[in-house]
Amino acid sequence: MPAPPDTALQQEIVGFKCPQCGATTAFSAADKGLTCTHCGYYEAPQKAVVGKTAKQLEFTTDALKREALPEFNTSDDSSFVKTTRKELSCQSCGALTSIPLDSLAHTCPFCGSNNVIQRQEPHDLLQPRFLIPFKILSSDCLEISRNWLGSSWITPTNLHNLANVNSFSGIYLPFWTFHAITRAQWKAEVGHIKRERYFDNGEWRERTVVEWHWESGNVRLNIEDLLVPGTSRLSKLILSGIKNFDLNELAPYEPSYLAGLQAQAYDIPLEQAWDTGRAEMREKTRQTCLSQASNTQVRNFSMNLDFADESWRYVLLPVYLTNFMYDKQSYQVMINGQNGEIAGQRPADWNKVWLVIAVLLAPGLLLGLLGLITIPVGGLGVGIGIFGFILLIIGLVISFILYNKAQSIDDI
Fold first, then answer.
1. Which terminus of the chain has fewer CB atoms gathered within 10 Å of its CB, N or C?
2. Which of helix, strand or coil describes residue 329?
3. How many Å apart are CA 252 and CA 45, to the nearest integer?
4. 42-43 and 33-35 as β-strands: parallel, antiparallel, unpaired?
């Protein structure tokens, strides 16, 4: 049998009851603190914003142990108090969501399913030390989403009038931030186009050749606050559309920021996120190396790369999520809770798309057909046919671009 937990190591349980009237208080993005809608009581956060000066941790066993175990989070960091919350597991998509204890109903913010069960809250996860509080009001999400849904002619005309788009859930999502200094030595063959004369069959002619010369260089990059999502439950493409968070507004974690809101613990661990972060840093460094070359035509590129001063943070960032149904299909939308950026899925009106494609291709097809019919007339028919062929090629290129755009809107 496992040993019972040491009660001396358990974190203090705090609730969010109004000290004036006893009603439940919640965090207000408008007032930047705890508010009571019953009597108007207001309580400001206890700690000031720290921004990018927020402490970063090294990749050491001691640092990981200090973050994971509650006995290390005592008097030196009073922000680590356990709130009265419960964790729910979605049986449809597997997402784990932390919600206030007094919530009676719950819909999964990731897939919209009501098939959720309560489960034991894990105690072996790293603890977030910092977060960015919500600034955008939930009441603003409806207008933001409706403007976005109706901003493209490819989408159905009535899409911005959807009634079920107003159920946005405010949720803190887990993110890792990484810092490192990369140093690289590179070398490559760089090509330069040159015109040269040569003698052929008794005549001097000109031709274009590429001359290749070896080049090399050194790069040093200081990569600050690279954001990597700590959740695998959301589309990376959608998340990338709302990832412009201003980390200058990072604040020390306080339970009051989560009052009345949902939060998700990470399911992408630090080691896996760091692999992703390193790959992004490696690519940034490679692109910087290539930018030092005297031309863009490069072959046989190689790079020796070292990482130094590596550090990380585990933070919570504010996002509004919603799922809406259109034509019996579910679509997901996200709004950045700090700046109002929006990204997500939108259905394409394929009737509109095919109609526009038909209009683009019709002139070329008609002129080509007319050219075939008038070929016996002579040069006029050939000229019409060639012009029609050119229009058809142009129409096919534009149609291909349009089709891919509509597909990307529909399949994020």
1. N
2. strand
3. 10
4. antiparallel
